[in-house]
Design goal:
8 helices, 7 strands, 16% strand, 4-stranded antiparallel sheet, YacF-like, alpha+beta
């Protein structure tokens, strides 16, 4: 989900040609690369795809499913594995030897991020024609297109694996047991936009709890003592 958020940021800033947008887009790309370049990243991703294929495949025997849709989904997941198998190098490895990106990565963790005044090469790059910058960013992002598509597809499958149910939190607190045989991948809380509270989820192997908090700008937020109506989705795939 962190990657999903970074993909959204990158896509948003790519719409604009102004220098601040180029800076923000490039910072998003650097953050994505820092996660995707981990040595075990590709293996973890393919393991998760295989896990979901193994969960979905037995459902082909059920008369209560849309077989064409399910077969299409399984085929697409297997195709993702095939595409990853064609990538012989570590994801993002092609950017590892680029001096500009190495310098930017070292400064990306600073509170101000990379600045053109202490990286003249960065200043020079930012002032190149917009078409040239777009071409280079797209080239650096090449391996990540497949990662982005895969993350989106997996999260969509997980989020759509369950229906939401109406629940109530008495005195601002809700607790429920979890199935020991199936660990959830995601627990989602949906509140009406006009709701004055936000949810904090905590839990362990056997159960989880949700506290509905009243925001406070000047002090620590407190759990409300009012009843809260919400919708709960426990995504298990």
């Amino acid at each position: 989900m962190r990657l999903e958020n970074l993909f959204f940021q990158k896509k948003y800033f790519s719409q604009f040609e102004e220098e601040p947008a180029r800076r923000s887009e490039l910072c998003s790309v650097l953050d994505i690369l820092s996660l995707a370049k981990r040595s075990d990243f590709k293996a973890e991703l393919t393991r998760e795809i295989n896990r979901i294929i193994n969960v979905l495949s037995p459902l082909l025997e059920s008369p209560d499913v849309d077989h064409k849709r399910l077969e299409k989904t399984i085929f697409e997941l297997k195709d993702l594995i095939a595409q990853f198998s064609l990538i012989q190098h570590k994801i993002g490895q092609k950017t590892s030897d680029l001096e500009l990106l190495k310098s930017l990565t070292q400064r990306n963790s600073l509170s101000s991020g990379p600045c053109s005044f202490d990286l003249p090469a960065y200043h020079h790059w930012l002032n190149r024609p917009a078409s040239h910058l777009r071409e280079e960013i797209n080239e650096w992002y090449n391996d990540l297109n497949l990662v982005e598509h895969t993350i989106q597809q997996l999260l969509q499958l997980i989020r759509n694996s369950a229906l939401s149910t109406a629940q109530q939190a008495l005195s601002g607190y809700y607790q429920a047991d979890l199935e020991l045989s199936r660990a959830p991948q995601l627990i989602r809380i949906s509140l009406h936009k006009s709701c004055e509270y936000y949810a904090e989820i905590s839990g362990g192997k056997h159960h989880f709890g949700v506290q509905f908090m009243e925001p406070n700008d000047f002090d620590r937020s407190q759990q409300t003592n009012k009843r809260v109506d919400f919708r709960l989705t426990i995504c298990q795939l």
